[in-house]
Amino acid sequence: MQSSSKIRRKVAPLANDGDSDKLDQLLVSSAICNAEDLGPFVRKAFASGKPETLLHHLRHFARSKESEIEEVCKAHYQDFIMAVDDLRSMLSDADSLKSALSHSSGLLQSVAGPLLNSLDAFVEARNVSRNISLALDSVQTCIRLIELCSRANSHLSGNNFYMALKCLEAIERDFLERTPSSTLRRMLEKQIPAIRSYIERRINKEFGDWLVEIRIVSRNLGQLAIGQASSARQREEELRIKQRQAEEQSRLSLRDCVYALEEEDEDDDGGLGVGDDGKDNHNNGGSGVLGFDLTPLYRAYHIHQTLGLEDRFKQYYFENRKLQLTSDFQVSSMTPFLESHQTFFAQIAGFFIVEDRILRTGGGLITKFEVENLWETAVSKMCSVLEDQFSRMQTANHLLLIKDYVSLLGVTLRRYGYPIDSLLDVLSKHRDKYHELLLSDCRKLIGDALAADKFEQMLMKKEYEYSMNVLSFQIQTSDIIPAFPYIAPFSSTVPDCCRIVRSFIEDSVSFMSYGGQLDFYDVIKKYLDRLLSEVLDGALLKLINTSVHGVSQAMQVAANMAVLERACDFFFRHAAQLSGIPLRMAERGRRQFPLKNARDAAEEMLSGMLKTKIDGFMMLTENVNWMADEPPPNGNEYVNEVIIYLETLVSTAQQILPAAVLKRVLQDVLSYISEKIVGVLFGDSVKRFNVNAITGIDVDIRLLESFADNQAHLSSDEDANQLKSALAEARQLINLLLSSNPENFLNPVIRVKNYNTLDYRKVVTISEKLRDPSDRLFGTFGARGAKQNTRKKSLDALIKRLKEVS
């Protein structure tokens, strides 16, 4: 068609209308002969508005073919006539066949009639049988369905929801589509969702009741778990105490004392219902001790799994538990935290013990990641609460109580795999504040103890008093138990202060223990040094400067200081033992006596008071005859009074003062007496003196030296020589004045050896006051006078040379 149209478009302008009609007629005829589609010709005719032309072409084609048809008919005419004859001959045969068939049909109908009646009866009977079978099958189906419904109702009545749901599943799977009764089917389609909804409501109510109950159970569970941790810690402390006792007995070489450390085989988790392998010791995750029953939870979880609502229940459970944990974080402002902290931390501990159990036995109800998120939230909140509460506390004991409970909480939850480093960091952060509060408390207690001191020796009537006040602080001077009643060399303030310091050590160790830091002795030692050197030493200095009146009180304070020096050794050993380090390491790091300032002040005050007494006796030097004709044979009056007083003092002091302290005090007093004797000779009150007066002073010094020698029984001969050395200045001055050749003072070797304590200026002044007997109106004559003149010349030469040097 496209080619013809193209040709038409090319020839249309050149051809006339007659040629165009002939061409269209040829195309139509060609298409019909070739059995082509005439659709394009029809569309073209109607498109051009000339359908008559197409009809004309078709009629023309038909007329052109009529002649061909006639020719064909003429060609086959003879065959057609023969076919008609054949048909006529076959018509008679057909009539005979029709008669035979009619006869056979009659015979067949007469024979098949009864048979068809029997067949109809058989078909009807078979249909009835089939209907009966179907009815029986329907009845059996209904019976089984009713039985399942009955069992489902029975399970629902017995709250056995899982089995009820299984019955519903069986009904839906096996009977719902096969139920012959439409009424029964509609009933099932209506009731099955209602029953499932009812089961879901019931199980959610049980789960809600469990959520309420588990909060109370968690608190009790946390308290029990922390209590078990506390008991375990106490047992460890008892074992350590026994071990320290054994070590102490071994240190004292008491081989007959044998200690056996008994091991207690106890299951720390027995009360919680958790075995060592991390599995439940009770069915369904329950615990018979506290009613720690997870059955309602797992039942709800199982039912929701059966209902196909597992993910929704997991989310519902997590959100509710998170809300419970958030509510557990609330700290009441109406109740002091000291009273509520145990409940607060026990609730959180119980919560995470329960979650740990559910994580291990819940079959994926909660994931480890979710538990870790809850724990991080809890740790953050607990740290925040502790920071806030610790910042408000002003009592060390309150802070210690909370710290101990928090450390027990950490120990408890660490056993379940929860990290507690953040909690321990908070405790460590407030270590300095705690010790500052503890030092403040001890400062007040020590001040009260010292204020109550009566400066009297302590009387102990019973052995337990001796053990409590002496042996417990290892301040005894002998391992032999004294007879009772026993008068101690110290006053009651010593054991009182020792108890305060020991309590400080134990509280400090208690705070530092179980805080994540294993070696904390250096910290304990630092604060113990501060307590002794700042608090106790300062309080004793204040007591010495303000409250001590009289020699007896000063002597008692000095005796107390000597006992406290031994107690300080015990304090550092005790701190080392409680800190768990060997004693040799503690003794290796020992420093000087921390109460040195107070000890020196006490001894200085005692010496000062004794010097004041000595000053009174030295006033008697005014009665000395400095120009005596004969030296006094038994010494001067003042020295006899001094010796009597010193002997009385020693007899009293040796009962309470250690020999070393008494030696230091006596040495200071004798040195002072020596200075006073030199001072009298050097002072303006004595204008001149003669050899007889100096000889009398020599006797005085000999008496004092004899007193010093007599003190050897208190300590040793070496200490007695040190006491005598306190009189060195007076002794060397008298030796120089009585020397036959005083000019030897100018010899450096002799001066260093015999006169090393003398000041040459004092020697000049005192030597100028020495008057020879020949200077008197009636001097002596003879050899003695010549000897005196020789000494006088030597002394004058000494004075002259010393003046030249000066």
From TrEMBL:
Residues 423-769 form the Exocyst complex subunit EXOC6/Sec15 C-terminal domain. Its main location: cytoplasm. Residues 57-226 form the Exocyst complex component EXOC6/Sec15 N-terminal domain. It is found in: Cytoplasm, Cytosol. Gene3D superfamilies: Dsl1p vesicle tethering complex, Tip20p subunit, domain D, Exocyst complex subunit Sec15 C-terminal domain, N-terminal subdomain. It comes from the Eukaryota. GO terms for cellular component: cytosol; exocyst. Component of the exocyst complex involved in the docking of exocytic vesicles with fusion sites on the plasma membrane during regulated or polarized secretion. Involved in polarized cell growth and organ morphogenesis. During cytokinesis, involved in cell plate initiation, cell plate maturation and formation of new primary cell wall. This is Exocyst complex component. It comes from Nelumbo nucifera (Sacred lotus). The lineage of its organism: Eukaryota, Viridiplantae, Streptophyta, Embryophyta, Tracheophyta.
